[in-house]
What we know:
The chain contains 11 helices and 15 strands. By secondary structure, it is α/β, with parallel strands linked by helices.
Amino acid sequence: MDQARVGFIGVGGVAGGHLNILNGFEDAELAALCDIDEGRLKGRAEAFGVANAYTDYREMLSAEELDAVYVCVPPFAHGQIEEEIAAAGTALFVEKPVELHMEPAVRKHEAIRDAGILNTVGYCVRYLSTVDDVARTLEGVQIDMALGYYMGGAPGGWWRQLNKSGGQLVEQTTHIVDTARYLVGDVAAVGGAFAAQTPLDDSADIENVSIAHLFFENGAVGAVMSACMLGRGFKTGLDIFAKGYTAEFTYGKTRVHAGGESHEFDPNNNMYESEDRAFIDAVKTGDRSALRVDYADAVKSLEVSLLAREANDKRAVLETTFKG
């Protein structure tokens, strides 16, 4: 395959980044776009020179011969999209989080697995070069603890509504949960703490702060902390601790102290471009080895976030059950 024909379902904010990147790939053709917002759809189609625009994704899937589809809809709007793409046998890129509840996420995982389609999920942080730097320094290290942070402000609109976003931990801090799973290991059990002392605004019902307590299968313990009432960016990253070892990973500079030596690493790539490059290459060749997360793995990250809320409600620590 010389060029991959790509369609988009959902062309809002997160899709814009992918569209800009793919538009610069000579081996990717933006073949079709779909969005329920006709004005936004028209704007994107004109901006990227896409002639085939739809407001019904089923019509797009039926009418177009696509090699891959990006699903970039809000968390509450997934419906049966992934299952129908799987039934069509088309390669699939889904933005995180993949769902708001485990039952539909597991159902979609099974449909994707049974169809055998190439698939990945937009956990872009896994593709950052400094993640590789940290992973390399962790070889042979028995990790004792990990502390993650996503502390900042809050986007508007549906993001502030719990039944549409799932809250900050599910929609945003999920990147840190996923990075912890990628670097430290799978999570065996979860505890949670959530609070919203002062509502963000009259339309908001999400928590201002939360803590997910993590108990990893390899014996390490950890916590992932979220805050969305700060009005500005403050701290985003993951700190990892072991005997004679510390790592301070951020989206920018990362610092590691190991074996009595200190090292600093700066990112040398655009993580969004790297994940899109890996996906398009996989679509063209069928080789999935460069894809760092599939749908099943993303469901594991989702389960951690959802269990944290349930554990908070029950004042308990709950074990994970999804194995993929």
